[in-house]
Amino acid sequence: MKLNRTEYRSLYQKASPSSPSLRNVPAAFVTGGAICALGQALKTLFLQAGLTEQSAAAAVSCALIFLGVALTAARLFEKLAKWAGAGTLVPITGFANAIAAPAMEFKTEGFVLGTCVKMFSIAGPVLTFGISASVLYGLILWLAGGAA
Length: 148
Hints:
With about 150 residues, the chain is an all-alpha fold. It is built from 8 helices and no strands. Helix content is about 80%, strand content about 0%. Helix 2 (about 20-50) crosses helix 3 and helix 6 packs antiparallel against helix 7 (about 110-120).
């Protein structure tokens, strides 16, 4: 089947569901902002408890990862993500969900071949490219004489 651009565009538009951006964008903004506000509130709480700035930041990351995994385990993260869209994807809670959801889905295949292997099916490429990009950036910085 050979299609010209107009025919392909028409076929594509019929097959693609419309995205209600007027609803999705504010929902993503509010949800992402609420997650970030929660992170800031946790950081303030940890600082008031006597943690250093660096320790408080690490504690916030751990708390938000725990929250993301707990919401995934309770099957609530999927409902929130369906409503909020990208608002749950960007913060660290989305990354925690990306690891926990496949692990839960494939746990019936066993610990090693199910949970452990599938856990990184979504997050693995993110980690691979993120680490590779940081190594490349560090190498360029070092070659340029910017690193001590």
